[in-house]
Write a structure and sequence with these properties.
Elements (H helix, E strand, L loop, with lengths): L10 E8 L7 E10 L2 E8 L3 E8 L7 E9 L7 E7 L4 E6 L2 E6 L7 E2 L8 E6 L34 E6 L2 E7 L5 E8 L6 E7 L2 E6 L2 E6 L4 E7 L8 E5 L4 E6 L2 E5 L10 E2 L6 E5 L2 E6 L2 E6 L5 E6 L10 E4 L7 E5 L3 E7 L2 H10 L3 H13 L5 H17 L3 H10 L9 H4 L25 H20 L8 H5 L4 H19 L6 H17 L3 H9 L6 H11 L2 H10 L3 H16 L7 H4 L8 H29 L3 H14 L1 H8 L10 H7 L5 H13 L6 H24 L27 H11 L5 H8 L5 H11 L2 H11 L3 H11 L2 H12 L9 H11 L5 H7 L6 H44 L23 E3 L5 E3 H7 L18 H21 L9 E4 L16 E4 L13 H25 L11 H7 L4 H20 L4 H15 L1
Parallel strand pairs: 10-14
Antiparallel strand pairs: 1-28, 2-3, 3-4, 4-5, 6-7, 7-8, 8-9, 10-11, 11-12, 12-13, 14-15, 15-16, 16-17, 18-19, 19-20, 20-21, 22-23, 23-24, 24-25, 26-27, 27-28, 29-30, 31-32
Length: 1127
């Protein structure tokens, strides 16, 4: 079924002329462009005559067609079947009576028949596309050869001189040379069914049409493929080269199929109303003519866009259409038996205007997109058309579609819509561009006027339609006329949508101010409060002067406050929030059900009251919150303190946040803030002082004392309140959290007493006596204990901890902190005699003896014990204390003797070093001046360097030739330092393996300080272990308690024994009777495991000496050593 034509003018006539054919109809037509201002038109008749017309056109005069001349081609009266101008050589090839004739382009010379070519049924010239880069056929320099040439080795030829000739069922490819002869390049036969009737040659592909069907032959691979067959009942085959896309249109009756060079369909079919007599191409359209009717179809869509009659006077006959057969052809010629007419394509702009005048907006946009895709329209023109369509739709009251087109336009300025929103003159009047586009719509006017004029036009159209007159108003408005309110709301909503989208563009400052300000106007017109507040509180370019009166008169004070705050007018914004908070508290603020979420229609008065109360709270809290956000960033101290009071009345947390905010550049003066805080707002003052002390690290004693006194007062009040309400409202005051009547919690998460205790412990800058005077008569015992401790009243602290609070662990920790034995004894006395008629605290006393018995004198403990104390409670503890005492005594003796042994060893090593001998011969030289020593005096340093006496006097006694200073960098020889080195290594290993308190990864270094007295007498001397990682030495210098200390003593004994045995082997120790050794070793087993270790070590070495047949004096030396070590 043929497509329904659309009313669009694509072709327009530019010139026509009558034809004098002597009653011989036109058979063929061809065009040849001579220049930009002249085109030749060749007409071939059925009687064999060739007519030449000239079409001239210029900008100064209208186009005109003039007759030039005529010439007879064959003289036989047979028709001229086809004409092929060769403009590049000034020739014309004509097919007539089965022969090819060659003429000059001006028809000045008679026709010349091309020899050896006859029986031609179809003839075409090769069309070479712009994308094709080569031609396969050779260019012959010597004409006249009729043999086929090798295709693969061919050189490029001029495609304008290559022809395909159909001769029955044979296809011949030939080249026209300058002499006027044809050189046959290739003959193809036996592959086509039927007589060749049509030909089209594009690049390497030949499309052949015969009675049986259409074929495509590839000149590269020499393959022929049947595209499709034609039924017997179909009309004669007809094909048309589409030069613009390098494709071919194949006709099957009235249906046209477009195929590519491989014979594949590439788009939809073109369905003509009737089988066309002739087919032409212009731009993106295909033209078919029949019976004096021309139809214009779009190649891609297949739509018939234009249909018109060729001859207006009703003349008929065969019509032929012809184009220029190139990619950029702009002319089209249609001939009848009596007239030749020239047409040209209407410009895209004129087509668009024509559609817009008819208000075919969808077709306009389709046409614009089509022209842009074809490169006939720029992107700027596309934006221009979208804007034009938008304005036309706007005045037709289609606001949504209008804004859609505005948004698609990239060149349209937002200021073009300002006159529709605000009446002129205004601040932005001069920014509005005076662009009337194509003058198709009225000038801008406010939306109210646009709607009124549109409604008037609708009413007029309804009246005219009733009278039978067609109008351009939509049928939708005819059937359902809209109301003014609905149209105005729709217009404002879509204007809002457009301005919102424009905010994301890169606008100038003035245009941005207009967009945001007018957007606020539109929000207010629809009462979109949330959008107004969102715009005002975000980054915007609104002009406050334009909106101030508007928002104030309409009652949108919140929006105005947000706007003031965003523009830096903090004082005005805070003034509005203060007014709003006062109005809310007076009950003048109410939020409707749509805002509170209450949707029940029948609510009782109690529910209404609760909702109203919640709304009041919500409004006051919001006002305070927004005001606090402004003040948090403000460094204006006067402004902050001015509004601090009413914010604190609503929410103390917000007031505190204002004071301690880190967002401001300059902090507030603490003295001014403290003076401005209401004394009734104690928690605010406490929190501010806490911030000053803990976060700002203030060391002002005034702030510390004031904070401590405030906490103490609050603690007293809280304690008294707890006592008074303990029975009646138990549990109401949980964790000191004050709850207001509206459910607001305290600003602190911890109790006031906990905060007081932490502060009293951590700070040393407050006046403890002032605080103590305040709470001395109260029951805040722990707080008083902390204060007494600060003042140094140890006895009072112990009394409170042990007797008032009965916190034994705290009392013992305090004794450890004091560190004196008398403190432990004082605590024991308090447990045994609490005074005030209280019973002795025997369990606490036993615990104290068990944990800290080593710090107590046993004799004093026995003297202090009460006769009434049950013996079984203290017997185990006293026994352990006595054993530990004896254990420490014996350990001290062992350490003393070990120290003596090491001192003897060091003295012996020094003596050996000083008594060394050195051999000097004739070759010996001074290590400093390198002079021979001979019989000179010399000196030797500990590093074995030898110098003459002269160099020795110059060097000094402490510095050798090598530069080493022995006073600062002592030299330890291996044989003399083996005991110390072995001791350090074994001590580190043993402590790592056996100590339960030392991490395995700890890096230990050992420093030996030999004690002259037992460690319990002089706790500051002895072995100190210095640990460099996550382990510290206690105050006494001993590590890990008794167990670790005993390990140290054991290792010392082992090292001493090993060293002495080595000396004993060299006979350096006096002898002693062996039978005294064994009883001695056995008696040492009573000294914990230390004695056992010494005994086992001594016996081991004695057995080794006996097995080695050593002298008896050596054994005596071992016994003497062990005797000295142990006693």
């Amino acid at each position: 079924m043929a497509a329904k034509p659309k009313s669009r003018s694509v072709l327009e006539p530019i010139a026509d002329s009558a034809i004098d054919t002597s009653n011989s109809p036109i058979k063929s037509v061809s065009l040849s462009k001579l220049s930009d201002t002249e085109t030749l038109i060749y007409l071939g008749t059925l009687s064999g005559t060739l007519l030449l017309y000239s079409l001239k056109y210029s900008q100064d005069s209208p186009p005109g067609i003039s007759f030039l001349r005529r010439v007879s081609v064959s003289g036989t009266g047979n028709p001229v079947n086809s004409i092929h101008p060769l403009a590049h050589i000034g020739k014309v090839v004509v097919l007539c009576d089965g022969f090819l004739f060659l003429l000059d382009d001006k028809l000045l010379q008679p026709a010349k028949r091309i020899s050896l070519i006859k029986g031609v049924t179809a003839f075409c010239r090769k069309f070479r596309s712009q994308k094709f880069g080569y031609n396969p056929f050779p260019q012959r320099s010597n004409g006249g050869s009729y043999t086929n040439h090798n295709y693969d080795n061919a050189n490029n030829s001029n495609s304008n001189s290559l022809f395909a000739i159909g001769m029955g069922k044979k296809l011949v490819l030939a080249e026209l040379i300058l002499s006027g002869s044809l050189v046959i390049l290739k003959e193809i036969q036996g592959i086509f069914d039927g007589i060749i009737m049509n030909l089209a040659w594009i690049d390497d592909s030949l499309v052949v049409g015969s009675k049986t069907g259409y074929y495509v032959y590839n000149c590269v691979n020499k393959q022929c493929v049947l595209i499709f067959s034609l039924p017997d009942s179909s009309s004669s085959p007809q094909l048309k080269l589409l030069a613009r896309e390098c494709r071919v249109l194949l006709m099957v009756d009235n249906v046209g199929i477009i195929v590519d060079t491989e014979g594949q369909p590439v788009s939809g079919s073109l369905v003509f109303k009737e089988v066309p007599d002739s087919i032409g191409e212009i731009g993106s359209y295909v033209v078919g003519v029949r019976n004096a009717m021309a139809e214009l179809y779009h190649k891609k869509t297949g739509d018939c866009v234009q249909r018109f009659r060729v001859v207006g006077d009703g003349g008929g006959g065969l019509c032929i259409v012809k184009d220029e057969e190139n990619e950029s052809g702009k002319l089209l010629v249609i001939t009848t038996c009596s007239k030749v007419m020239c047409y040209r394509k209407v410009s895209g702009e004129e087509q668009i205007k024509d559609l817009l005048r008819k208000k075919n907006f969808k077709e306009t946009i389709s046409l614009v997109e089509e022209l842009q895709s074809e490169g006939e329209l720029t992107k700027e023109m596309l934006s221009f058309v979208h804007a034009q369509v938008g304005f036309l739709l706007l005045f037709d009251l289609h606001f949504e579609e209008a804004v859609d087109h505005f948004l698609l336009s990239e060149t349209m300025q937002p200021s073009e819509l300002f006159p529709f929103i605000m009446r002129d003159p205004n601040r932005w009047t001069l920014l509005v561009p005076r662009n009337r586009y194509w003058g198709l719509h009225p000038p801008p006017t406010p939306l109210e006027n646009v709607i009124d004029d549109g409604l008037t036009a609708i009413q007029r159209a309804v009246f005219l339609k009733k009278a039978g007159v067609e109008t351009a108003v939509d049928d939708e408005f005819h059937l359902n006329p809209p109301s003014r309110a609905d149209l105005l709301e729709s217009a404002i909503q879509n204007m809002i949508r457009y301005l919102q989208a424009c905010r994301d563009r890169d606008l100038t400052q003035s245009v941005g101010e207009g967009v945001d300000t007018l957007l606020m106007y539109l929000y207010r017109a629809l009462n979109r409060v949330d959008d107004m507040e969102r715009l005002a509180s975000s980054e915007n370019s609104c002009v406050v002067e334009e909106l101030e009166t508007l928002l104030n008169d309409s009652g949108h004070l919140r929006t105005l406050a947000f706007l003031y705050a965003r523009k830096g007018m903090s004082a005005k914004a805070l003034g509005i929030w203060r007014i709003l908070a006062r109005n809310y508290s007076q009950g003048s603020y109410y939020r409707g059900p749509e805002e509170t979420g209450s949707t029940t229609e029948n609510e009782d008065s109690t529910a209404d009251l609760k909702v109203s109360s919640r709304n009041v709270i919500f409004g006051r809290e919001t006002a305070a919150l927004e005001a606090s956000r402004i003040l948090e960033e403000s460094s204006d101290q006067e402004l902050v303190l001015q509004h601090l009071g009413w914010i604190a009345d609503i929410n103390q947390m917000l007031a505190v946040q204002v004071l301690i905010s880190e967002k401001r550049t300059d902090q507030l003066s603490p003295d001014e803030v403290i003076a401005a805080i209401d004394l009734k707002k104690v928690e605010i003052l406490q929190r501010y002082l806490q911030w000053l002390i803990e976060e700002q690290y203030s060391d002002d004693t005034r702030f510390h004392t004031t904070y401590a006194l405030l906490l103490a007062k609050s603690a007293l009040e809280t304690y008294e309140m707890e006592l008074s309400t303990q029975n009646s409202v138990a549990g109401m005051l949980k964790n000191e959290m004050y709850v207001s009547e509206f459910g607001e919690d305290s600003i602190f998460e911890t109790s006031v007493r906990e905060r007081l205790q932490i502060f009293l412990e951590s700070s040393d800058l407050y006046d403890a006596e002032d605080v103590l005077d305040l709470i001395e008569e109260s029951e805040l015992w722990l707080e008083k204990a902390i204060l007494y401790r600060k003042l140094g009243h140890e006895t009072l602290v112990l009394q409170i901890l042990a007797l008032k609070l009965e916190d034994c662990e705290a009392a013992e920790r305090y004794c450890v902190e004091i560190g004196r034995p008398d403190a432990y004894m004082q605590l024991l006395e308090m447990y045994l005699d609490p005074k005030d008629g209280r019973e002795p605290m025997f369990k606490a006393a036993v615990r104290h003896l068990h944990n800290h018995g080593e710090m107590l004198d046993p004799l004093q403990v026995l003297e202090r014990l009460s006769p009434n104390m049950p013996l079984q409670l203290a017997s185990d503890t006293i026994l352990k204390m006595l054993r530990a005492r004896l254990h420490h005594h014996r350990q001290g003796q062992i350490v003393h003797n070990l120290s003596r042994a090491l001192d003897v060893d060091a003295s012996l090593a020094r003596l050996e070093e000083r008594s060394r001998h050195v051999l000097i011969n004739d070759e010996s030289v001074c290590n400093s001046c390198h002079a021979r020593l001979g019989t000179k005096l010399f000196a030797m340093y500990p590093d074995d360097t030898i110098v003459c006496y002269k160099c020795f006097r110059r060097q000094g006694e402490s510095t050798s030739v090598t530069g080493r200073n022995f006073e600062k960098d002592p030299l330890a020889k291996p044989e003399h330092s083996s005991s110390l080195t072995a001791f350090s290594a074994e001590l580190c290993t043993l402590i790592h393996l056996s100590s339960p308190v030392l991490p395995a990864s700890a890096d230990i270094s050992v420093l030996l300080l030999l004690p002259s007295r037992p460690p319990w007498r002089r706790p500051s001397t002895g072995f100190r272990i210095i640990v460099s990682k996550d382990f510290s030495v206690d105050q006494t210098g001993w590590v890990g308690g008794d167990g670790c200390y005993n390990q140290i003593l054991y290792i010392m004994a082992k090292v001493a024994c090993s060293t002495t045995i080595s000396k004993l082997k060299n006979g350096l120790v006096s002898s002693m009777v062996f039978d005294k050794v064994v009883p001695l070793l056995e008696s040492l087993s009573e000294v914990h495991y230390l004695g056992v270790g010494c005994c086992q070590l001594g016996l081991k070495h004695i057995n080794l000496l006996q097995k080695g047949n050593r002298p008896k004096a050596t054994v005596h030396g071992v016994a003497h050593l062990l005797y000295n070590l142990c006693y």
